[in-house]
Amino acid sequence: AQLDTLDIIVLAALLLGTVAYFTKGTYWAVYGDPYGNSLQTSNGAARAGRSRNIIEKMEESDKNCVVFYGSQTGTAEDYASRLAKEGHSRFGLTTMVADLEDYDYDNLDKFPDDKLAVFVLATYGEGEPTDNAVEFYEFFGSDDISFSEGGSADDKPLANLKYVAFGLGNNTYEHYNSMVRNVDKYLTKLGATRLGAAGEGDDGAGTMEEDFLAWKEPMWVAVTEKMGLEEREAVYEPVFEITEKPELDADADEVYLGEPNKNHLEGAQKGPFNANNPFIAPIAESSELFTAKDRNCLHMEIDISGSKLSYTTGDHIAIWPTNPGKEVDRFLTIIGLAPKRHTVIAVKGLDSTAKVPFPSPTTYDAAVRYHMEICAPISRQFVSTIAQFAPNEEVKAEMTKLGSEKEYFHEKVADRNLNLAQLLEILSNSEPWEKIPFSLMIEGLLKIQPRYYSISSSSLVQKDKISITAVVESISRPGAPHIVKGVTTNYLLALKQKQHGEPDPDPHGLNYSITGPRNKYDGIHVPVHVRHSNFKLPSDPSKPIIMVGPGTGVAPFRAFVQERAAQAKAGQAVGKTVLFFGCRNKAEDFLYQHEWEEYKKDLGDNFVLHTAFSRDGPKKVYVQHQIEEWADELNKLLDQKAYFYVCGDAANMAREVNTLLGKIIAKHRNVSDAKGEEIVKAMRASNQYQEDVW
Ligand code: FAD
C-alpha cells in the first residue's frame, strides 16, 4: 500500500524521536546549546543574563540620552557613537549607545520625560530592517502593540517619549529609508514627540556623510531648546582606556594577535560559525577569470566541509579581511606608534556602556591590522575632531579648515581618495601626529567589516564548496597621489598568488599577513561566515527564469545555471533558463565562457545566453540593449509567470533594468508606462522579481 502524507509525517517523527534518544549524549550536547561556548555575541546582553530594560540601564549608569542603532555594515553604529559623543562633549548630555537587539521596548511608555532617545536606523535591501533591528521593528509594526502599563495605541502611551531620528538608506532601492520613515510614523502615532526633522542619508547619491552633517546641526538646536541645554566648548574625552603592558610578551597565550574571539585564541576553532565567529576555511582552488593583464577577477572555491556551515543557492558568503601591511605601517608610523607596535595593550571602556570593538589584551599592530577600517574614505567630522591633536598650529589650521569647509574637503580629501593616514602624512609632511590618543582612533574609525560575495556555486551540486567570483578593486584617479586598492579583494588576490607559488606573490607591495595571527591561516585559509538571503530559485525547476547579470553580477547566476543543468541531467523537467550577460569584450572578461557551453549540453535549447559586449565593436552594447531586443521572448516567458532576477550594480544597471522591464510590459500589454511600473512593483512584492545588488 502507498503511504500518504500523514503516514510519512508520523514515521518521520518516530524516526527523529528514535535518533534523538540514541544520540542524546553525543549530538545533543552540540546542538542543544549552540551559544554555550562563552562567545561574545552581538546580543550578548540577553545571553549573559544582563537586563534588557533600557530605563533601568540608563538609571544605573546615570544617563539621560540613549542612542539606539540598527546597523548592518557598521555605518549606522558609527553615526550613533558620533552623536553620543557629540551630545556629551558639546551639550553635556550623559549619553550611551545601544544595540537595538539588546533591549525590549514594551516599557517605553515609562521613558522619563527629561530623557532623550535617539534612533539611527539603516534600511537594508528591499526596505528591510537590519538584522539587529528585526525584533524592534516587528514590535512597533505589530497591529496589537501593547506596553507595560497596558496602554493601547489610541491612548498615546508614548506621550512622555522625546526622540530624534536619522535614517541611512539608498535611493536606488524601491523602499528608500523605509525604516526611519516607518518608525517615525509609529512613534508619532503612539504620542511620542520628535525633536528636529527625521533625517535621511542617501548612500545612492553618495551624500550620506554630508546629509548626516547637514541634518544634525538644526537637530541639536531643537534638542537644546526643548531640553534646556546649553552648548559648551567641546573637550575631547576618551571613551576607552589604553593600558600598555610592557611586562607581557606579545607571544603570551592570553594576548590576541588578531584572533577574532576567545574560541580562536584558545586553540582549535569551534562552531557554531556565524557573524561573530568566523570559520577559518581552506581555499581549495583559486584561479583568474580575466585574460586582461591590467584587471583581475578571481574565482575561488572555499571548502566548508566539517564546519557545519551550510548554504543554499543564492546565499552570500562573508569574507573577513586583513589590512595590507603597507597601510598598517603607514598608519602606525604617522601616529607615532610604529616603534611600539608589538607592545601589549589592554583596552577597556571607561564607561560601563562602552563596548570595546575587539578582544583585549592585544597589540597596536594586531588591533590596526585585523580590526580597524584604516583604508576607507575619511569622514569630515572626524577630520574636525582630530584637528586639535595636530603636531603644530599651521597643520591644525589646515585640518580645521578641511573639517569645516565642505567644498574644500571634497577637493583636497574625498576627490583624491585619501585614507586617514595618507591625509595625515600629506598635511604634516610625514611628521608624526603623536598627540592623537589611540582611543580616538578606535572611536573614529569603523570596525573592519566582512565583505559579502554572492555565492557562485549551487548547493545542490557542491554543498561543501562555496565558489565566489570577485573583481579585484583597483581605483586610480587622475591627480590622486595613491591608487585605492580594495582591502578584501587584494587580500584574496595575494592568497591566490601564494597558492600558485607565483614568483612575486605581492605585485602591489601591499604585504598582507597571509598566514594570519600565529600562522593560524597558513596553508591558504580565509575567515568566512555564511549569510542566508532571499534571492532564490523557484522551488519548482520547471518554472522559466530570466536572469540579468552583467560583470560579477553573473555570480549567483552561474550557481542558478549550474543547479538547473544538474537537475536536467538528473532527468528533472527544467524550464527555460535565460541569462543576459554583459562585459567589455569577449576575449578579455567574458566570465565562465566555456562553462556555459557545458551547461548547454545538459539544458539544451532551454538554456539561452544573450551577451552584450560594450567595447568589442563600434557600438557599445549593454545588457539593457539585449533585453530590449529580446523583449518579445521575454514577454512570452513573463506571461508564463517566469521569475525575473537582477544582480550586480545597484546604482545604474539595476534601476535601468527595472524601468525598462516596466516599459516592455506596458507595451506588450498595451497599458500605460505607469501601469507597467506598477506591475513590476507587484512582481517584486510577490517575489517574482528579485534583486541581489550592491
Ligand atoms: P574596499 O576596500 O571595501 O573598497 C571598496 C570601494 O570603496 C573601492 O573600490 C572604492 O570605490 C571605495 N574606497 C575604498 N577606500 C577608499 C578611499 N580611501 N577613498 C575613496 N574611496 C575608497 N563583489 C564581487 O566582486 N562579486 C560578488 O559576487 C559580490 N557580491 C556582493 C553581494 C553583496 C550582498 C554585497 C553587499 C556586495 C557584493 N560584492 C561583490 C561587493 C563586495 O562585497 C566588496 O564590496 C568588493 O569586493 C570590494 O571589497 P574590497 O574590500 O576589495 O574593497
Structure explained in plain terms:
This protein has 694 residues and is α/β, with parallel strands linked by helices. The chain folds into 4 domains: 176 residues, 3-Layer(aba) Sandwich (Rossmann fold), CATH 3.40.50.360; 146 residues, Up-down Bundle (NADPH-cytochrome p450 Reductase, Chain A, domain 3), CATH 1.20.990.10; 124 residues, Translation factors (Elongation Factor Tu (Ef-tu), domain 3, Beta Barrel); 149 residues, Rossmann fold (3-Layer(aba) Sandwich), CATH 3.40.50. 36% of the residues lie in helices and 17% in strands. Strands 1, 2, 3, 4, 5, 6 and 7 form a 7-stranded mixed beta sheet that branches. Strand 19, helix 17 and strand 20 form a beta-alpha-beta unit. It is globular, with a radius of gyration of 27 Å. Flavin-adenine dinucleotide binds next to strand 14, strand 15 and helix 16.
Please tag this protein with its features.
694 residues, alpha/beta, Rossmann fold, NADPH-cytochrome p450 Reductase, Chain A, domain 3, Elongation Factor Tu (Ef-tu), domain 3, 4 domains, 7-stranded mixed beta sheet, 6-stranded antiparallel beta sheet, 23 strands, binds flavin-adenine dinucleotide
